[in-house]
From TrEMBL:
<protein>
    <recommendedName>
        <fullName>DUF1963 domain-containing protein</fullName>
    </recommendedName>
</protein>
<dbReference type="InterPro" id="IPR035948">
    <property type="entry name" value="YwqG-like_sf"/>
</dbReference>
<dbReference type="Pfam" id="PF09234">
    <property type="entry name" value="DUF1963"/>
</dbReference>
<dbReference type="InterPro" id="IPR015315">
    <property type="entry name" value="DUF1963"/>
</dbReference>
Length: 258
């Protein structure tokens, strides 16, 4: 893995060694508004679905809609994450973007497909059965987007549920806190690393603290008009051991906004 370094503001240089220990790699996602192939990584658009596969539905029988799809063959490798296969994120296209109970996959689904078929003859191409969305139902983006990826790094951000424990004996002045938030909180769309939030980390709740790995973060982007609510951020989390086993049955989905 490449040697990651971060530039610290002068006020935080004295904490360099402490901050450096928290640095994690993550995959930065860049969006470009365009149509995609069925097996490509994307925001929105049509999902990868082989002939005979069942399209995912919500508990009420409504079809879920593709929020995002990650083809790990296109992604720089992160430890514990798959090196191949497709991971799909579906949500109910309602006024809360499929948010219900954070861990109940009734109004959202995360699906992993280990082997990818690139012969379109073996894939479903006609998704007209989904129909048009009703007037009051919508997705958090306006246009389909192709994803590209780069490997980056980041320290633990202010507001992450492990922050206070990691720095429990490090006192920051008000100015240093502001500098940390402004310079070291890395927002944006990403895979892995640390999550950021508009409001607070739901994993402060001890019952949710075992969802310790960020699968996907979607932040506001002008490209594709991506936005959850009012400048919101959406996150999908999994337990690291479940990720290693490629078991996506237990997922924490959360989004918040201003």
């Amino acid at each position: 893995m490449k040697n990651f370094n971060i530039e610290l503001p002068e006020s935080l240089e004295k904490f360099k060694d402490r901050i450096k220990k928290t640095i994690k790699p993550y995959v930065k996602i860049k969006l470009k508004e365009q149509e995609t192939k069925l097996w490509e990584s994307k925001l929105g658009g049509n999902p990868y679905l082989e002939n005979g596969m069942e399209y995912p539905k919500a508990f009420n029988g409504e079809y879920l809609r593709l929020l995002a799809q990650i083809n790990f063959e296109e992604v720089p490798h992160l430890e514990t994450f798959p090196e191949k296969g497709i991971l799909q994120f579906f949500i109910l296209a309602d006024d809360v973007y499929g948010f219900n109970e954070p861990c109940i996959q009734d109004t959202f689904r995360v699906i992993y497909i280990s082997n990818v078929e690139k012969n379109e003859e073996n894939l479903i191409k006609d998704f007209s059965f989904l129909g048009e969305l009703e007037e009051d139902w919508y997705m958090p983006f306006s246009n389909e987007g192709k994803m590209s990826f780069s490997l980056e790094c980041m320290p633990i951000p202010w507001g992450e549920y492990r922050f206070n424990n990691v720095y429990r004996d490090m006192s920051l002045t008000d100015e240093e806190e502001e500098e940390y938030v402004e310079k070291l909180n890395i927002d944006g769309c990403k895979i892995g690393g640390y999550a950021t939030f508009t409001q607070y980390d739901p994993r402060d709740d001890e019952k949710l603290s075992n969802f310790n790995t960020l699968l996907l973060q979607l932040d506001c982007e002008k490209e594709c008009d991506l936005m959850f609510g009012d400048a919101g951020i959406a996150n999908f989390f999994i337990n690291e051991e479940d990720l290693k086993k490629l078991d996506f049955s237990r997922i924490l989905y959360n989004w918040d906004c201003c």
